[in-house]
Amino acid sequence: LLCSNADESRSHLFFQCSLSREVWTSFFTYQGLNPPHSFNGSLSWVSQASQNGKIKLICKLLLHAVCYTV
Asked: What is the DSSP string of 16-59?
């Protein structure tokens, strides 16, 4: 159990839990990006975060890094 505040669903563990929100926040220092707030939203977030191909790649790497860290 990470926080015991809610059922451990995929969305809660990776996006809604206070621990995972803290991890997301620590990875997002670039002002132009906002982290996703749900698992399904993360899929569209990766493709729509920026028009810049390099930023899109960074977003994909961030998603993987955060999930791995959590």
From this structure: ISHHHHHHHHHH---TT----SSHHHHHHHHHHS-SSHHHHHHH
